């Protein structure tokens, strides 16, 4: 069974940046479209960004122009570069396939606050 481990979260001031990483063990990583999701307190988990096996990307309107998703198939890792962070970006961030077919990891907390 594929396991994912997210890392890179933390506390950052508004306007700051963070880079999240998601390392997968097992599975046919390179064939899967991968995605980052987030879940804020009291809200449903939402899709933030996705990247196909061919490295085509797509973003939620709320993060377009500020976040960049990328992948390294050799390392079985997907990244999320987050710039110009806003308080409303505060959430636990998770990665999974775009079809949500793998087990969820523990996520990484991102808190944007002054």
For the record, give the distance between the C-alpha atoms at the N and C termini, rounded to a whole number.
Answer: 40 Å
Order of helices and strands: EEEEEEEEEE
Q: Please tell me what the overall shape is.
A: globular
Mean pLDDT: 96
Radius of gyration: 13 Å
- Any low-confidence stretches, pLDDT <50, length ≥5? none
Structural class: mainly beta
Instruction: Determine the number of helices (DSSP H or I, runs of at least 4 residues).
Output: 0
Summarize this structure briefly.
The chain has strands at residues 3-7, 10-12, 18-25, 34-39, 46-51, 57-59, 67-72, 77-82, 91-97, 108-112.
Furnish the topology, listing elements before pairings.
Layout: E1 3-7, E2 10-12, E3 18-25, E4 34-39, E5 46-51, E6 57-59, E7 67-72, E8 77-82, E9 91-97, E10 108-112
Parallel strand pairs: 2-10
Antiparallel strand pairs: 1-3, 3-8, 4-5, 4-9, 5-6, 7-8, 9-10
Report on this model:
This protein has strands at 3-7, 10-12, 18-25, 34-39, 46-51, 57-59, 67-72, 77-82, 91-97, 108-112. With 114 residues, the chain is mainly β. The strands form 2 sheets. A 6-stranded mixed sheet has the order 2-10-9-4-5-6, with no helix packed on it. It is globular and about 40 Å long.
């Amino acid at each position: 069974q594929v396991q994912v481990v997210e890392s890179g979260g933390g506390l950052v001031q508004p306007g700051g940046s963070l880079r999240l990483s998601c390392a997968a063990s097992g599975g046919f990583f390179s064939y899967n479209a991968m995605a980052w999701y987030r879940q804020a307190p009291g809200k449903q988990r939402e899709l933030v960004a996705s990247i196909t096996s061919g490295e085509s990307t797509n973003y939620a309107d709320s993060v377009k122009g500020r976040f960049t998703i990328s992948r390294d198939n050799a390392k079985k890792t997907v990244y999320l570069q987050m710039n110009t962070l806003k308080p409303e970006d505060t959430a636990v961030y998770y990665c999974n396939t775009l079809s949500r077919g793998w087990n969820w990891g523990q996520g990484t907390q991102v808190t944007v606050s002054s």
